[in-house]
Write a structure and sequence with these properties.
By secondary structure, this protein is of the alpha/beta class. The chain contains nine helices and ten strands.
Length: 269
């Protein structure tokens, strides 16, 4: 019979291995449910035009297109990981109030859109929206506005197609960095499929860029906003706000945020 210490070591090793395997399996199985929190249906009438887009893989995507009589620029808004367009109704109105046309979409699996969300799918949804806009305006008149998770497809677009500007609001450096923050006790980043590597992309995006973040963001730390800005290529600007949680920034500072966006859009006037 093996010595007691060897049997204990073997049992401990097997137990640890089993825990690792189960944890990795859970991460793989439930990764998407930990990233995406869609609300299906429950989207009221568009404040402008109802839009149905077809992504490159055939998935039908729903959006709102709101025009402004004096618009010189069009904003493509890509929202965060929760809710749907209905929760952005006031935001769409405020963006249009900047004398801009606005296209806001629900990713696959959100609102009235078909399918199930994942990184590749969100990139395809954003590209379908961009292509739709480019049939109606010049690419250099399109500004991408990615909020939180939406910064992922926004940065991917800005890195691969021409556009007039990129607004990165309350964004993380990468999904893997967020995983390390959420689970510091386990190297989840090694096993994730999702990347959303905004940090590596901003250094190669040549259009004008604006980074917005709250120092009091309780979900995506301000430090990530700082790192994105530091890594970004010129031309770039930043707007750091002293208060306001991840979802309250525009509620607490509506005028300041609007003024920041308006200043960024001034060259299009």
């Amino acid at each position: 019979m093996a010595p007691l210490w060897r049997r204990v070591s073997r049992t401990a090793g097997l137990t640890l291995g089993l825990v690792v395997i189960l944890t990795v399996g859970c991460i793989r199985c439930f990764e998407d449910s930990l990233i995406y929190f869609p609300t299906t249906g429950n989207v009221g009438p568009s404040p402008g035009e109802e839009v149905t887009l077809t992504a490159s893989d055939g998935v039908k995507i729903h959006g709102w297109y709101v025009t402004h009589a004096d618009a010189k620029v069009t904003i493509l808004h890509l929202h965060g990981n929760g809710g749907n367009l209905e929760h952005r109704r006031d935001l769409v109105r405020d963006l249009a109030g900047l004398k801009a046309n606005v296209l806001a979409i629900d990713y696959r699996g959100y609102g009235k859109s078909e399918g199930k969300p994942d990184e590749k799918g969100l990139y395809a949804d954003a590209r379908a929206a961009y292509d739709w806009l480019c049939l109606r305006t010049k690419p250099e008149r399109v500004v991408l506005h990615g909020e939180s998770l939406g910064a992922g497809p926004a940065c991917e677009l800005a890195a691969t197609v021409p556009c007039g500007g990129l607004i990165v609001q309350s964004a993380f450096t990468s999904a893997k960095d967020m995983a390390s923050r959420v689970m510091p006790w386990f190297p989840a980043r090694w096993f994730m499929r999702s990347n959303y590597d905004n940090l590596s992309k901003v250094a190669h995006i040549s259009c004008r860029k604006l980074f917005i973040h709250s120092r009091a963001d309780e979900i995506i730390p301000f430090e990530m906003g700082e790192r994105l800005f530091a890594a970004a290529a010129e031309p770039k600007a930043s707007a750091w706000f002293p208060s306001g949680g991840h979802n309250e920034l525009t509620i607490l500072h509506p005028r300041e945020v609007a003024a920041t966006l308006a200043k960024f859009l001034e060259p299009f006037r």
